[in-house]
Amino acid sequence: MGSTNIHRRGLVLSSPSGAGKTSISRRLLKLDKGLEMSVSATTRPRRPGESHGVDYFFVDTAKFREMIEAGELLEHAKVFDHYYGSPRAPVEAALARGQDILFDIDWQGTQQIAETARNDLVRVFILPPSTSELERRLRSRAQDPEHVVAGRMAKTMDEISHYPEYDYIIVNDDLEDSVAKVRSILTSERLRRERQLGLTDFVKRLRQKQ
Q: Is the dihedral of CA 57, 154, 147, 26 positive or negative?
């Protein structure tokens, strides 16, 4: 940015399960080196192929409650009988390094973070192109039992009802197109006048022909 710096912030991606936020997140992280993932802590069992500290911090319920009591989580919520939360320390360290933070969290967590960091938060909600496509994606995972898939589908409408709480809405009918749209949002938000630190001094020097 030449003579100005960017005030770093959090980017939230939320969606019903299966709408594609995790796939979009992974593509964003590969394409944007100024973006770093907030790895959530969870009490749910590890799925095949997942790694501790990469996909999630896998902890038991007692440890999770200790983290809540110690104020170590920026937000937390119980979803489908398991707890999820965003550890505070890694986020603060990444911001100090000049990174933007990507949160892959639900509407409950988004509300909590927005209470204390609304001006530093960009909220994007991902919608599926149809209910039938959402169900197809959930079943194609082949990792969750039938009753879990049915539970997620039942909760979808409640999750979708929170879309007005978000700044941007994207219908994910094509992954690459959705990724491009989120990148456009990031670029636009980074160029906001109030996010460009030192802009007043920079303009002052321009007017003085320096």
A: negative
pTM of the model: 0.85
Extents of the domains making up the chain: 5-38+99-203
Fold classified for 5-38+99-203: Rossmann fold (3.40.50)
Q: What is the pLDDT along the chain (210 residues), one digit of tens a residue?
A: 455 676 668 999 999 877 889 899 999 999 999 999 999 999 999 988 999 999 999 999 999 999 999 999 999 998 878 999 999 999 999 988 989 999 999 999 999 999 988 778 999 999 998 888 877 777 776 566 777 777 777 778 888 999 999 999 999 999 999 999 999 999 999 998 888 888 889 898 999 876
Instruction: State how far the alpha carbon of 68 is from the alpha carbons of 71, 108, 110, 111, in Å.
Output: 5, 15, 16, 17
